[in-house]
Amino acid sequence: MAETDRSVLDEAWGRIPHTRDVQTEQGAFTQTRIERVITLIVGPGSLVLGAQAFAAAFGGSVDEAQGWHTPLVLAVFIPLVAMIVACTVNRFARVFSGVFAIVFVLALAVWPLATAGGPAPVPTENPWIFYLVNVATVSTVVAFPLWMQVTWTVATPLLFGVVRLLQAGGRPEFVVPVILDVTFALILGSVLLTLVWMYRSIAANVDQSRALAVASYASAAATAASEHERVAVAALMHDSVLGALLAADRASSPRERTLAVSMAREALTRLANAEKDSLEGSDEPVRALRLADDIEIAARELGIELTVVRRVEEGTPRVPGRIARALVLAAMQAVANAVQHADAQGLTVELTGGSAPGGVAVRVRDSGPGFDIAAVPPDRLGIRGSIDARLTAVGGRSDIDSSPAGTTVTLEWESGDRW
């Protein structure tokens, strides 16, 4: 049963649409898409700040000493460009984002050495490296786990403040501007980190709820499949096995023995194919008159010669294949009951069809002694499983009228009932 539950779960999950560029595992449907959105925001968003830093690096005053500016710019901007491209194309985004975050911190660490002996800094002008502080912090949301993201978000602005004051030699006029810059970087980095964490949490909750819904659907579908299997097996056991045993036990004439042998042969065939769905086959609609032909052929295979009376009007709708098979099987169960319990006295089968309302009906009559329907034991499935349940499963109706004058089993289906 575990394999059945797994296949049902796979089928349920398969109903959720998957895009061509994202292949998700069960339970990570929304999280995968949120991660893709994050990388798309980090890439192009970093491009804006990176362009601003690049313009400041080559369009204004230079803070580094001679021989430091170009190598330091290349060391920072090459990983930045690689990160932007990787996030945009969604290839190696985590690797290049982590490389940039680490390289930028190293660049900040050597900043006091790179600016030693260089031009005197101006308090009102920020160096080009400042514009990349939040790019370094936001890159960690792609590359690192949460605790490292928090560490980078707090430590990187503080490190910039320290190296900026070292560059300025600790002059008092730099204290307030540096504090403002560090505070701004801390606030912006914290907001970005919080937003990413919030969206990831929402995506995880959505996926958890979806997984629970799919599991609930799978459980319900598995239960329904088990019930369907139970009813099908019960009908098979009664129709094929118990029917053959009862016929063999009661056979007292050549005709009854022939019927018992035919039923036993059918039982063996159906048991050999028990793993197949009893309703398998094409559901292509068939002519109503086809039902009469199928009933006659099935009866002949059981050793019963009968001719179905046909009263089918012009315009009678075609019957879906699944319903046609259910009507034929139910009719044959009624015929077998008439042979076993009424010795086929006055046995007749009539097929009627009408166009308004569109539908068909099969009536199996015998002139036997009849029986009390309410007195049928619950474990006898000839009527409940093989007739009533079978017709109900395909949207049909069954009615049994029995009296000392005989029994009439009516099997009906209307085109508007279910199909």
Keywords summarizing the entry:
419 residues, alpha+beta, Heat Shock Protein 90, 2 domains, five-stranded mixed β-sheet, 12 helices, 5 strands, 63% helix
Describe this structure in words.
The protein is of the alpha+beta class. It folds into two domains: 2-214, no CATH class; 279-414, Heat Shock Protein 90. 63% of the residues lie in helices and 9% in strands. It is built from twelve helices and five strands. It has a five-stranded mixed beta sheet with strand order 1-2-3-5-4. Helix 2 runs antiparallel to helix 3 (69-89), helix 2 runs antiparallel to helix 6 and helix 11 (321-342) packs antiparallel against helix 12.
Helix-strand category:
alpha+beta
Low-pLDDT runs: 16-26, 275-280
Provide the residue-averaged pLDDT.
80
Put simply, the count of helices is 12
Q: How much strand content do the residues show?
A: 5-15%
Label the overall shape: rod-shaped
Most strands sheet: 5 strands, mixed
Distance between the termini: 31 Å
What is this structure's SSE topology?
Layout: H1 2-14, H2 29-59, H3 69-89, H4 93-109, H5 111-115, H6 133-143, H7 146-167, H8 175-250, H9 254-272, H10 289-301, E1 309-312, H11 321-342, E2 348-355, E3 358-366, H12 381-393, E4 397-403, E5 406-414
